[in-house]
Amino acid sequence: MHTIRVGLIGAGRMGRVFAQTLAYTVAEVDLVAVADANAQTSAEVAAHFHVPHHYGDYRELLKREDIDAVVVVTPTATHAEVIAAAAAAGKHIFSEKPLAQTLSECDAAIEAVERSGVKLQLGFMRRFDAGYRMAKQKIEEGLIGTPVMFHAASRDPKRTSLEFARRENSGGLIMDMGVHDFDLARWLMGSEVVRTYSEGGCLVYPELNEVGDIDNALINLKFANGALGAIDLSRNAVYGYDIRTEVLGSEGSLLIGTLQQTPTLMLTRAGVTHDTVPYFMERFGEAYTNEIRDFVTCLIEDRPPSVDAYDARKATAIGVAATLSLDEGRPVSLDEVQ
After folding, report:
1. Range(s) for CATH 3.40.50.720 in the chain?
2. 25, 103, 235, 334: which one has the fewest Cβ atoms less than 10 Å from its Cβ?
3. What is the pTM of this model?
4. pLDDT of 43
5. Residue 98: is the preceding peptide bond cis (ω within 30°)?
6. Are 37 and 61 in contact (CB under 8 A)?
7. Which segments constitute the Gfo/Idh/MocA-like oxidoreductase N-terminal domain (predicted)?
């Protein structure tokens, strides 16, 4: 079996998650180097995961001839820049979502990747979750007939930091959180989104308004085939990490996700209670591993990535349209932002 020599770019919270997977979980990977803008952080992560080389500048990592591919887990606003540089260096790329915050940046990254001939896969990990994969299979088998309505709830148990919440850093609530649901919507429904309409506000954390973000949003979708969609996003699900999706078809419905983490109910005089999923790693830890394993397999087998740059661009386009709808208080056609 061929070994893929990988460099990790970005060693923050999510970078450490991927370092664990690359160093210990996917057998076909040799984690050669790690880079982070904070040189101390890259050194600490390298030492913790026994990575032989570390850098404070990712460009130094890209100069290494013994690296086949990179995993990009840098801040959201830098994804396109790092992807373009990695492509120019001839490295295959796995990048966390989103591809970029604007469509012009998406296009620049795509052009760089296509010019170099490397592979690029995006980190829409929900596609690699067992529940979502089974739902996709059942839809394709015709179990629920023709999908006619999509509904998703993505709710975090706490607000993000104010610095991250700034649009220039995260893209804002709709782009940052909604992009996963935008990708799922077009993937599960088998149709492109053609119109969005958003409502949102600072209803729980007024301090988010000071940095130009919101804590709750509702987004309606219209699909090219006439189907309908609705997404609710929240940063104040204090009861747990709540990620659920429903696809209603002409012959039935599929429900994906549950708030309950373990199959245990506690029954007492006070009532019936159960635990809840605390946060994203408890819910999607296996999916994060599966997406990396899939990326490595696509390199070994020389096949196209499962989630390519055009999938990522389309998710960003929906996010751009939905954010514009929020700002201007009107429905926005995808044609307006393309």
Report:
1. 4-125+286-307
2. 25
3. 0.95
4. 98
5. yes
6. no
7. 4-124
In this structure, the chain runs to a length of 338
CB-CB contact of 127 with 307 (8 Å): yes
Q: What is the pLDDT of residues 198-212, one digit of tens each?
A: 999 999 999 999 999
Q: Please give the structure tokens belonging to residue 116.
A: 């170099």
What 3-state DSSP class applies to 311? Answer: helix
Q: How far apart are CA 18 and CA 72, in angstroms?
A: 9
| Mean pLDDT of all residues in 289-301 | 97
Instruction: Say if residue 298 is exposed, middle or buried (CB neighbours under 10 Å; 0-12, 13-18, 19+).
Output: middle
The domain over range 4-125+286-307 is classified in CATH as 3.40.50.970: no
The helix (run of H) or strand (run of E) holding residue 313 is helix 309-328
Mean pLDDT over 87-107 rounds to 97
Q: Look at residue 4 and give its three-state secondary structure.
A: strand
pLDDT (tens digit per residue) in 249-258: 999 999 999 9
pLDDT at residue 1, as a whole number = 47
Contact call for residues 193 and 337 (beta carbons, < 8 A):
no
Handedness of CA 187, 288, 119, 58 (dihedral sign): positive
What are the DSSP calls for 33-88, one per residue?
A: EEE-SSHHHHHHHHHHTT-SEEESSHHHHHT-TT--EEEE---GGGHHHHHHHHHH
pLDDT for 2 equals 82
Pairing of strands 69-72, 92-96: parallel
Residue intervals in the chain for CATH 3.30.360.10? 127-279+315-336
**Computed over its alpha carbons, how large is the radius of gyration of the chain?**
20
Q: Closest Cα to residue 67, out of 8, 130, 137, 122?
A: 8
Q: Which fold has domain 127-279+315-336?
A: Dihydrodipicolinate Reductase; domain 2 (3.30.360)
Q: Give the integer Cα–Cα distance in Å for 169 and 44.
A: 24
